[in-house]
Design brief:
- The complex is a heterodimer of chains A (about 160) and B (about 130).
- Chain A is mainly alpha-helical.
- Chain A has a single domain, classed as 3 helical TM bundles of succinate and fumarate reductases (Up-down Bundle).
- Chain A has five helices and no strands.
- The longest helix of chain B has 29 residues.
- Chain B has a single domain, classed as Up-down Bundle (3 helical TM bundles of succinate and fumarate reductases), CATH 1.20.1300.
- By secondary structure, chain B is mainly alpha-helical.
- In chain B, about 75% of the residues lie in helices and about 0% in strands.
- Chain B contains five helices and no strands.
- The chains are: A mainly alpha (about 160), B mainly alpha (about 130).
- At the A-B interface, helix 1, helix 2, helix 3, helix 4 and helix 5 of A face helix 1, helix 2, helix 3 and helix 5 of B.
Chain lengths: ~160, ~130
């Protein structure tokens, strides 16, 4: 009995890939994409469907960042999401924008710079420890926490 | 390749939703990450989350994410199995249905936030 080759399009991809990194990106898009389906849909369900997105004030974010599992989860979402999106936008630029090499170079440089900056900003925001109100800092003297400006503490 | 047929629409919508999600991811990272700059900066940025157009837009973002997710799974199945290629059309309609269901769930959760006087439940579990 002949075993059917299941990964027939991986073979196609291998044949089509102009370079090895291109094939690595092809595989990465499928692996990260599958992981992101679970990570993103659960993230959306937990933070937007089950809870009102607009209700996420500083205090809630600070306390949720205090948990290491949560940080790790968001770190995975951030890095996988931006790498997946960054490579995806590269496909879009290659297919749908100008073929002029100089112009394309500037489009890609700008887009990669923005994505890189956001990645670093997001990583820093997760690494830096936020003062948790009521634990690391206090509310303004005599103020009712619920009555202050969206619960902004004196941090 | 499959001009004008379902596959063409699946491809086009995948690219369009992908770009939209990336833009939102950038916005979202900057707005949530602004907590790093202090509570005041964050709440100033976060005020836009309460605006009606932003709330409506987020339901659209949820729909785009769900479509990109389910159609992405369809692409993976097409790449690694024969039946995925054979039934790609049916799989596309299935991903549209799942995306629509996810978006409807998001809409249902958001109705009391959009129209508090009409819809009185606070969570999707009632209550």
């Amino acid at each position: 009995m002949i075993m059917a080759i299941k990964a027939r399009s991986f073979k196609d991809a291998k044949a089509q890939a102009k370079s090895n990194p291109e094939l690595v990106w092809w595989v990465f898009m499928r692996l990260s994409g599958t992981a992101l389906v679970l990570l993103t849909l659960f993230h959306l369900f937990k933070n937007h469907i089950a809870v009102d997105e607009a209700s996420w004030d500083y205090e809630q974010i600070a306390s949720s960042y205090a948990g290491w599992w949560n940080k790790l989860y968001l770190f995975a979402l951030l890095t996988l999401g931006l790498l997946h999106g960054g490579n995806g936008i590269r496909y879009v630029i290659d297919d749908f924008t100008t073929k002029k090499p100089a112009t394309r170079f500037w489009i890609k440089s700008t887009v990669y710079t923005i994505i890189g900056s956001v990645l670093i900003f997001g990583m820093l925001a997760l690494i830096v420890d936020l003062p948790v109100p009521g634990v690391d800092c206090v509310y303004p003297k005599g103020a009712d926490p619920a009555a202050t400006n969206r619960g902004v503490p004196d941090c | 390749m499959y001009k004008g047929r379902e596959g063409q629409w699946a491809f086009f919508l995948h690219r369009l939703s992908g770009v939209a999600i990336l833009l939102y991811l950038i916005l979202h990272t900057v707005s949530i990450g602004s907590t790093m700059l202090g509570a005041e900066v964050y709440s100033a940025v976060h005020k836009i989350y309460e605006l009606m157009p932003f709330r409506l837009g987020l339901i659209g973002v949820a729909g785009a994410v769900a479509y990109h997710a389910f159609n992405g799974l369809r692409i993976v199945v097409m790449d690694f199995t024969d039946w995925g290629v054979k039934y790609q059309r049916q799989l596309w309609y299935a991903s549209l249905v799942f995306a629509a269901l996810f978006m409807l769930l998001t809409l249902y959760a958001n109705l009391p936030r959009l129209f508090p006087s009409v819809f009185t439940y606070t969570t999707i579990w009632g209550q």
